[in-house]
Design goal:
2 domains, about 30% helix, alpha+beta
Length: about 140
């Protein structure tokens, strides 16, 4: 089947087909995606289509922006505040959003971090390991 390339100005290299049964599953910049439609305010949101398996998905799928209506700048601000150690309440106040929004983004970020860690931290071989602050109880304290 012939694959249609994305129009000029449409960078789809950061996306991959999310269908595990597709031969292009998780293959970024494979040339199998096209923009099927646009929606949202200002038609900014793209709905992508895999030309192989016909799976449709939004370009926000799997990101911190999935399912949110707040601007990307606000999500970035929330993550920056949380990274610097601000509480959920303080972050909500700074970003001018509800605490539940901050909590939802925090949970989603944690899930994504876990998935990233599980994918990348596998089969690590090392000649030595250094264990800091290892505490052991050798016997009873008197």
């Amino acid at each position: 089947m012939a694959r249609k390339a994305a129009p000029a100005g449409e960078d789809l290299s950061g996306f991959a087909c999310p269908n595990p049964e597709c031969i292009y599953f998780n293959q970024y910049d494979a040339g199998n995606l096209r923009v099927g439609e646009r929606n949202g305010k200002g038609r900014r949101l793209r709905r992508l289509v895999c030309t192989n398996c016909k799976t449709r998905f939004q370009d926000r799928k799997g990101t911190l922006m999935e399912g949110t209506k707040i601007p990307p700048q606000t999500v970035a601000l929330i993550m920056k505040c949380l990274t610097w150690g601000n509480s959920v309440a303080a972050t909500a106040d700074i970003a001018d959003v509800d605490e539940r929004t901050v909590q939802r983004i925090l949970e989603r970020a944690g899930e994504r971090a876990k998935v990233f860690h599980d994918r990348t931290a596998q089969d690590i071989e090392t000649a030595q390991a250094q264990l800091d602050e290892v505490h052991a109880k050798a016997g009873e304290k008197r």
